[in-house]
Description:
Order of helices and strands: HHH
Shape: elongated
Structural class: mainly alpha
Number of strands: 0
Largest sheet: none
Number of helices: 3
Number of domains: 1
Strand content: under 5%
Helix content: 55-70%
Amino acid sequence: MRKTADKKLADITLSELKETFREVILEAMDPDYGLELRDEVTEALHESLAQQTRGEGVSLEETRMKLGVK
């Protein structure tokens, strides 16, 4: 996410205005947009993907059955 100094609307370029709109839309769609993951979360995600590759873990169907969710 780009940080800029406060400017008056009359002082910004069309490109800057468009970029600002893009940022606002992305933030509205995803409140976590632009945030970084903690190292522990990144490592956990990598391990989860590795488990899936090895055929380990619990399938969605198994989880649904255990929780009684359709």
